Amino acid sequence: MPRLDHSSPRAKIVRLEESAYRPPRWLSNRHSQLAWGALARPGSRVAFRRETLPTPDGDEIVLDHVVAATGPEPRPRPRLIALHGLEGSSFSPSVQGVLRLARERGWNATALNFRSCAREPTRRGRAIENRTARLYHSGETTDLDFVVRVLGRREPRAPLLAVGSSIGGNVLLKWLGEQGSDSPLVAAAALSTPYHLERCARNLETPLGRLYSAASLRTLRPKALSTASRFPAAARAIDLARVRASRTFFAFDDAATAPLHGFAGASDYYARSSSLGYLGRIRTPTLGISARNDPFLPEAVLDEARKAASPAFRLWTPASGSHLAFPEGPPWALASWAEREIVAWLGDRLG
What we know:
By secondary structure, this protein is α/β, with parallel strands linked by helices. The chain is 38% helix and 13% strand.
């Protein structure tokens, strides 16, 4: 379907359809697309102003703010909140991509680093450890809610937008469902969301899937062991031997994530945290983009998400794009189609 003329009255209602995405011929399969999205994207960073925000439970959330160019504005600039994926941070390529596009539109933006995920602002900065006997997980929404309320109080007239990537998308969609009509966001978007956490975790229990999950587990295991070494309550909850032996997300979550955060086990954690069960309650205009060739997600889950969603949630499911990738353009200027479309769609919702 051709791109709409944005001067058309219908442009704010109907945008580029999912079937229009076509990857470059030399990045035509999901594995090469994933490799580009995770490893080969340009490394330039958006400049941040870092804030360490104390939380009500005695911990800290690290926020990285991007300030748009200064100058007179007829109305307050929108603020975009970006949530990263598993073991990511404000330096993750997908977060950097949407922040850069937001800045180009003249928006302010804030990257929310999940607890234990913020990295020191150096090229190879280490992760900043949490100060309480907990970590983060795919269904933890209280920190997002806290940050949204804080930013809203600071700029009461500024429209708030949000984008979540991968598990950040799951957190955002679950929170939107919890809020229902009370959400303070004008619009939101979620990219490559694992809507059904257990089926996504099980989907990676193949030789190739274990290769993909190994990178995250290499950092998740030390985090859990460090938390147990620093907090007696965490040491009592976490099964340290099983954490050390874990080679799948299910095994790790059953030994660490679930007991540390009050779940009966991995299946209970996945069932109570999956955004699929919250899509029908969303009342904020929201766009989801997920590729049908995403190696982390069974394709059938996308059809279930579409059926479960409220009218406020629109889901695009291109045939290609892999996980947090969607490359487009010539080899010397590749960019993410999905990130560009998400920011444009959010801009349309501002009126």
